[in-house]
Structure formats: C-alpha cells, structure tokens
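Holo model, adenosine-5'-diphosphate. Inputs:
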Amino acid sequence: MYNRDIMMPPGEWLKPPRSLLLILFLVTLVSVSALAWFGWKVLYQERMIDAQRAQERLEQAAGGVAATVKGVLLETGEKVGTWLLSPPADGKPEEGLLLLVGPNELSARPVNRLLYRPLPPPDEDILRGAFSDGEALEFQGGESDQAVEWYRRRLAASKDEAMRAGALVRLARALRKAGRLQEARAAYTQLATVSGASVAGVPAELVARHALCELSGDREEATALQNDLARARWQLDRGQFAFYWSEAARLAGNQKAVPDDLAALAEAAAQAWDELASDQNLTGQNTLWVDGQPFFLIWRGGAGHRAALLTRPEAMLRPILASGGVSWAAADAEDRVVVGRKTAGHAVVRTTAETHLPWTLYFTAAQGTTDAGTVARQRFLVLVTVLTVLFLIAGAYFIGRAVRRDLEVSRMQSDFVAAVSHEFRSPLTSIRQLSELLAEGRVPGQDRRQMYYDTLVRETTRLQRLVEALLNFGRMEAGVRKYRFEELDAASLVERVVAEFAPQMESSGRHIELEASPALCPIDADPEALSVALRNLVDNALKYSPGRPTVWVQWAAENAHVAIRVRDRGVGIPQSERRAIFRKFFRGTAAAAANVKGSGVGLAMVRHIVAAHGGEISVVSEPGEGSTFTILLPAGEEK
Ligand code: ADP
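Output:
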C-alpha cells in the first residue's frame, strides 16, 4: 500500500486528494523558512543593538578613564609642586624618585634608591700642593718610611676633615708600599671613619673599605661592600659606581649584576637630569625610555628650583588600570605602549589632541562584558524560534499522517464497497434465477424443486449473515453494541461454533481438528459475540489455507487466562501486515494473491469483540507456513 504511493508518478501528486499533502508540505516549508529567517533577522538585530550598546558603554568608559588619568596627572603635578616647597619625609615618595634641581644642587629622594647621579666636579683646590713634599719623598726618593713619617706628621697637624682624609689615604698607601700592612689597615680603618670627606671626589669611607677588602681578601667584607653599593650608601657618579661595583664583584668573587630595576631607575634619572637641563620650562612632563621600559617624568618649578617626580607609569596608574569593564592601554607618539596591554581590534581610541594627555589611549571591552540579560534574551529568542519551528514541523507531520491515513481509509472504503457488492451479487443472482425458475413452474420433479428450495435457504442465510455481520460491525464502530456476559465454558462455545462448519466440511472434504484442554476453561463472555469472533477466525483459517485439508482449534487455561487458538498451514501473513490486518477494511496481499473474497472487516470486528471482553488478540505467522491467531481472555470463576 505504501509502495504504491512511492511508485506513484509525480503527476498523480498534483491531483486531489494527494495534492493536499503536497500543499501541506509546501505551506510547512514556507512557514518554517519564514520563521527561521525572521528569527535569524531578529537575532541579528539584537546583536547589532547589543554591539552598539557595547560601543556606547565603551565610549563612556573611555571618557571616564581619560578624565581619571588626567586627574591623576594633575594631582601628581600638584604633589610635585608641594614637594618643591617642602620636600617629603624620609623614604618618600613611595611611587618613584623625587629629583630636586637648584642652581648648584642636584639631589634625589629617597636617597637610597639612586645608585648614581651626575656630580659636580670634585673641589680639590684646597688640597692642591698640600702633600707635595711627602709625595716627593714617596715617589722620587723611594723613601717609603720617611714618607710615612711625613704623612703622619701632616695628619697630626690637620684638623680639616678633607685634609685628614687626604693625609690618611696617602699614609696608608705609603705603608702598603713599605710592606707595613698591619699599619696600612689601621690607617684605612681610620680613613673609613672620616665622615663626609672625599678623596679625589670619592667618599673616603668607600675608598677605605675598598682598600681594606683588597688587603684582607675577605669575600664577606667585599659582599657587604657590594650590598652597600646596591643600597646607594654613597653619592657616586656613573663611572665611580661602575668601577667600585666591578671591584666589589671581583673581590667578592661573584659576577653579580646591578639589580635591574635600580639600574633602570638610575639610567632614567640620568636621562631625566639631561631633560631638565635642556628644558627650562617651569612645568612639564615627558615619557622616558630605558631598555624598552617606560618612565614618566613630571616636574614643577619656581624661583630657580625645580622638583621632578620620576616614576613608572604603571605605579602611578595602577588603580585605574584595574577599573572594571574595559581594558585599555596608553601609547606614546611613537606608538610604544606606556601602560596597559594593547589588544587587537581596539574599539575606541582617544588621541592626545582630544584628551590633552601625553599619551594616546586605546580601549577594548574587557572579555565577557556582554551583559547577562542580553545573553539570556538571545538564548530565549533562539529557543522560542527553534521550538516554534519544531512545533510546526511536528504539527505538519501529524496532520500529514492523518491526511494520509484518511486517504488510505477512503481507498480501503471504496475497495470495501466493491468487495461487499461482489459478496452480495453472487447469492442474489442465484436467488433470482432459482426463484424465477420456480415461479415460472419450469422446474420438473419434486426432488429437484426441493434442492432449489434448499439452495434458496442457504443463499438467503448467507445473505442474512453478511448483512448481520455488517450491521454488527457498524454497531461496534458506533459503540452501541450491547454485550450480555455470562459464565460459560470455552469448550462448549468452541465446539458449538465448529459444529456450524460441519456441512461445509462435509462437502469440501476438509476438517477442523479440536485440541481440547484437559481442564475446565471458564470464561465470562457474551456467547453470541465471541462466536462471531471465533467464526471469523475459523473462516479465515479455511479461506487462507487453500489446498490444505486441516485447520486446528485449540483451547487451554494459561495463568489466569483462557487462550483459544486457531491454526492453519496456509499462506501466512508477511511481517509488514501483521498490525494492519486488524484495521478495518484492510485486505492483505495474501487475500489479493489467492483471490479470496472478503470485506476486510472480519479481524477488525474480532479485535473489537475481544477488547470488549478485556482480552487480547494476537497472531504468529510465517509466510508460506501458516498462521496461528490467539484470543486471550481473562479466566472466569470456576463453579
Ligand atoms: P477479509 O475479509 O479480507 O478476510 P479480515 O479482516 O478477516 O478480512 O482479514 C484481513 C486480512 O488479514 C485478510 O485480507 C488477509 O490478508 C489476512 N488474514 C486474515 N486471516 C488470515 C489467515 N488465517 N491466513 C493468512 N492471512 C490472513
């Protein structure tokens, strides 16, 4: 039946009623496409609006950040201005290095953060020629001991720190030359205590400690010297620092490099001083670069003095960097990133011309900032669209199926009308012919007439049965068939129904074999209805096993049920039809192949009747081997 549809030429689909299915399919296709398109469009618009909102939010955030950065710079500038008047307490400023520049002054705070700085040339004038006699003894005469004595006298006579330092360093040198190392060490130790004095521009203490390390060869002492250098204990220029650092490293036996951050800061400070020297503006700011690292210099000035803060931009702007919602970066005129991280595809840019800041600002929306409401709305939209599409498809599928079934039923109905008409026609024809013959008195002999009467009775009975069966089925379908249940034994019912077939069996030479149950099989049933059901099954078994003499009827009690089985060795039923045969008007391929007459309502009626008894009908069959139909009924009470 389905195969017939598939193999149908395409033109057939365009004719009613199949065109209904085609129209349904097209309408569904168009509506689903329209809905999907509409859903996609709305979603797209939602996305656009969302993107626009995100852009607006970003613009707003950008404005906010730019204003805050500006505020921080202003505030920092003001702070530097106050430091110009009153320098900060020890250890301040924390965020960087304060450089103070005066006519004859270059200083930095906190002092211990700057490894080296430009220094004024050493003022050696006071010492010029002060030790020339001693040096003459030391260098020209080679009289170290006499030179020692000379320097000692000089030392004793000196009150001035610089003079004492000058004398001590020379005395220690002469003692070393004379091989009097113990005394030389004592002289250096003494030199180390002459605070504030310098020897050839180098702090006396540093000179002494370096010499002492050399004399003792003590690595720990050298390491301590190294640490003091790293703590910027002395004010040195770059050359002095480099020399003493390398000496300390050599004497300590390590190759420790200058700590990176301090080296960079010292280098930046050197640049800052150059910058301040070349730029005479009273206020200003600039970004300096040391080894690819940015430093920010901001200065304020007045009355021949200037104060400048040298700091890492990151230290200054850290709190703003973390401000939520956006990620941003600042880059200088050469597009080097000063602070933050420049991510690809930045959405908003604020130039220096717009912000009057020293940097261009780049803003991108931080990851995952699409607001949860929008995401939920979009998800909801997708869900609604998908559900509607599914609903539409499912609806169309079920409508399609129903239409198809209806088409099938109407086809089967017309088959049914044809089949029933045929069933009626043959008995009616013989009744008409026989009654005509009898009426016209053309039948000679009493025996013959009797035979005709018998035939008339048989044919009218057949017709009556047929009409009753159809009426019965109609009543069942309409649900108005009344059942009258009573307690009875399955054996008596089966035997009675089978007995009805006796004349037919006799004339055809076939027989129905009974396989009786040894036990009683009580059932609660409407005997008339159940007889109709059983008669149908036996009739089918005989109809669909042409050429086979026997069909079997068996009944037995099985777990609170009574089973009545009708078995044949006939044509069998293909797997694909085993459910369909219980539908009304359905006629199987076996029926068509064997040219068996029928209406297709028999099994549908059996199913109705068995269901009304609270039982079940089932079939086991193998094409070519035969079929067994089983009526399973709830067992009644034994009396
Ligand atoms: P019909 O009037 O066609 O016999 P039924 O409802 O009794 O109508 O049966 C429906 C179909 O089931 C039949 O057309 C036939 O194809 C199949 N069928 C019923 N009983 C048998 C059987 N014993 N052996 C093979 N096919 C059967």
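Residues 536, 540-541, 544, 568, 570-573, 581, 586-588, 590-591, 598-604, 627 surround adenosine-5'-diphosphate (CB under 6 Å). DSSP finds 20 helices and 18 strands in the chain.
Archived with the compound record.
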